[in-house]
Amino acid sequence: MKFEVNRDVFSDAVSFVVKLLSPHPTQPILTGVLLEARDGELALSSFDYDVSSRTAIEAAVDAEGAVLVQGRLLSEIASRLPDAPVTIESDDRTIKVTCGRSSFSLPTMPTEEFPSLPSVEGVQGVVAGSDFADAVAQVSVAASRDDVAPMITGVHLTFGPDNLSLVATDRYRVAVRELNWQSNFTDGEDALVVARTLSDIAKSFAQADQVVTTLISEGDRKLIAFSAGGRTVTSTLLKGKFPAVGRLFPAETPHFAVIQKSDVMDAVRRMQLVLEREQALRFSFTQDGLTLDAVGAEHAAGSEELGVQLTGDDIVVSLKPSFLLDALSQIHSAFVRIAFTPTDNPNKPGPVLLTGQTSLDEAAQNDTYRYLLQPNLLMR
Questions:
Q1: What are the C-alpha distances in Å from 205 to residues 131, 262, 264?
Q2: End position of a domain, from candidates 247, 264, 294
């Protein structure tokens, strides 16, 4: 095998197929990137049985062939090569990478031991890459990072003919985003994808005009594929039943406050300075305004007052600052609506529901993104 490729294009392609490889593969062969040169094209792929990535770039192919090399090492080398065309040539056990005055010799692995990539066939939906990346970022902040309950480390996708719903939770908060799309899905089909994997995929395709989502069935095994711009990633789905968190959202929220998002974010960050890591921040909403109170260790304390437009009775809630900031950072409106849900016990407020608003006007609410956060009293 021998071919020549553009340095920048090659480096970008190798980086893409290596990005989602497991840092702790079960077999050395699964650290590899398969390079296949033929018909004026170089195809690159990786697969660790959970996630596969594939792409292809133009290449001047002098001799066709295929080799399997250690992926992360090849990616690091490709990213540091000088500004010149890259030539790769193989013999029985190594490949030689030449670029300008730089050259490297890398051992190869047996291609016949590399697993076959999943076939991407099934029902599909199409959405803009920027919309998809934004939606995944908004919900993935709420996914659990605790592997004790794997099903809530994922983002739950529900597919419809015209609508894609994304949901994530870690038990203390729930984030939901609704997207319009075009598809041949029927109502009721769904998938549960590891949040970290989905986030990396979405970032990779953020600049794509369209991202095609395909649900794949291989016997008892189900996978999901995302494709854009000649690149495809597949992922196995998480097993287990995702909790029915949709029922936690109230049908109506007549009791709410509206405040400028940047003001409350800045105030929370200031008050957070005196708090220990797991301490809550106290929010007192009244008709006169909002007061934030922080009480930290060794008599450290802070307080700040903000203007707020409150509809309904005065109320006090205690919230975890980092969880609140996660929501506020993903709301893309100038104002945020903080709605209070009723409970049978007036001493224990219900969850607060955060949505965006373009202005103080009640009719300016944008609820395509919703973030439900439990007050600190209910986290114990």
A1: 10, 29, 32
A2: 247
Amino acid at 5: V
Alpha-carbon span 135 to 155, nearest angstrom: 11
Q: How far apart are CA 158 and CA 139, in angstroms?
A: 13
Specify the long-range contacts of residues 218-226, CB closer than 8 Å, at least 24 apart.
218/118, 218/119, 222/191, 223/118, 224/157, 224/191, 224/193, 225/118, 225/120, 225/122, 226/201
Number of domains in the chain: 3
For residue 89, is it within any domain?
A: yes
CA 142 to the chain's CA centroid = 10
Same-domain pairing of 309 and 357: yes
Q: Are 199 and 175 in contact (CB under 8 A)?
A: no
User: Do 116 and 132 meet the contact criterion of CB atoms below 8 Å apart?
Assistant: no
208 located within any domain: yes
276 lies in the same domain as 260: yes
Residue 118 forms part of a structural domain = no
- Structure token digits, residue 49: 């049985």
The two three-digit tokens of residue 216, written as one number: 């794949």
Q: What is the CATH number of the domain that holds 35?
A: 3.10.150.10
Q: Tell whether 38 and 128 lie within a shared domain.
A: no
CB 188 within 8 A of CB 170: no
Domain that holds residue 280: 251-379
By C-alpha distance, which of 211, 214, 210, 236 is closest to 223? 236
Q: List beta partners, residue 234.
A: 52, 225
Final residue of a structural domain among 223, 247, 271:
247
Closest by CA to 14, choosing from 31, 35, 39, 30, is 35
What are the per-10-residue average pLDDT scores of the chain (380 residues)?
97 96 88 96 96 97 96 96 97 94 96 93 94 97 89 96 96 95 91 96 96 90 94 95 91 93 97 90 96 91 96 94 96 96 78 93 83 66
Q: What is the pLDDT at residue 235?
A: 96
Does residue 151 form part of some domain? yes
DSSP codes joined into one string, 173-192? EEEEEEEE-EE---TTEEEE
Q: Which residues pair with 125 in a beta bridge?
A: 183, 213
Rounded Cα distance between 33 and 39, Å, is: 19
Residue 319 contacts residue 283 (beta carbons within 8 Å): yes
Q: Are residues 75 and 193 in the same domain?
A: no
User: Could you tell me the two tokens for 361?
Assistant: 């006007």
Q: Which residues contact 289 (CB under 8 A, 6 or more apart)?
A: 305, 306, 307, 308
Quick check: pTM over 0.70? yes
